[in-house]
What does this fold into?
Amino acid sequence: MNCNDSTLPAHAALFSGPDVWMEGEATAQLAAVAALRGCVQAAGMPDLHPGRGFPIGAVVATRGIVYPHLVGSDAGCGARMVATAIDRASPDKLERRIRNIWSEPFLDDANASALFENAWSYGPRGLAGVDGLPASLRAMAALEPDHDGLPPSGDPAPFRAGFERVLGTIGGGNHFAEVSSVSQVVDDERAQSLGVRKNSLVVLVHSGSRGLGAALSTRWGLRPLLDGDIDSYLGELSGACRFARTNRFLLAYRLLSALGALRMSVVRGAFDVTHNDVRSEIVAGVSSWIHRKGAAPAHEGECTLVLGSRGAASWIMRGRGNESALQSVAHGAGRRMGRSEAREKIRARYRRTELSRSSTGGRVICDDRDLLSEEHPDAYKAIAPIIASLEAHGMASRVAALTPIVTVKL
It folds into this structure.
């Protein structure tokens, strides 16, 4: 049930649905990347929308060649979910605690050099070996998996420019950190394996490598990579992805602190998904380079995250390994308004107090009215048709819905 557009070549497919809004420029950009040298397959997710010359919500498989610009300027961007045993929290108290925690110094006592080196080389687990960090943080880091599936990180020397100072920060755009409630469980068995249960609270973080990803993008530019350049780039990409995972781990830690959930007996499970990277995977029986930009991996049986908006639930989903979709799913709802359009229309439509509340009863901690407008739920596609399309195309199945209680965009 591939929704192929007549403007797309035979080796490209757009996975959409009758109720999914799709912009013509997005499909034109998908066709353009499918025409790149070495491309053997391309897939547009139902959240596909135009990027700066290249689409967001796309997966591109190539052979013998890698295109760094298809990853974009936020290499390693992704999402992290942490399930807790807590069933309720006062939104008023939680908002106050989060504001207090975000106003306090963070990581100031850590050895800056070790912080960067360990994040780059080892990811979150590397924090266990950094002096000056809270004991509870180091203990939690020590429980992170030994292996993350990435190649060894490359030489960090080109990126030693104070990037350790951005660790534990959200960044702008559609990034966020939030406390959500498990509002629906569809797959009880898989939810239980993740520590997720109905009405319990979870921490959900969407962020990336901050300025480090932009530095990586600038360093490699628009040129296609062959042979030894591929290995060099992928090593540096691994470092950026590990740095981004460490950033999400630290953001989750800050929210867990606000929840009073730093004891391991309270944390029931966690997983992290990267949706901006390049991986070696098998396509039609042949090793290929899979470029994902705003698309989450969804291999058979593996859990993934499809993000809603601050006014709509995000979903934990179970991948079904659909090879025609390059074993991927949408990473979120996808924009339907550009940022300037959203600022103009939504500022005129809502009062400031309305912008900091959602239709589901959630609240938003954000002091930037432009950002509140740009990231309003009205600027995004509806999440329900996206999820329905993913299931209809056999890309993933629903596990649990996570409805925002307090969303942080600071």
User: Anything to note?
Assistant: The chain is about 30% helix and 25% strand. The chain has a mean pLDDT of 94. The longest strand covers residues 396-408. Residues 12-336+380-408 form a domain with the tRNA-splicing ligase RtcB fold (CATH 3.90.1860.10).
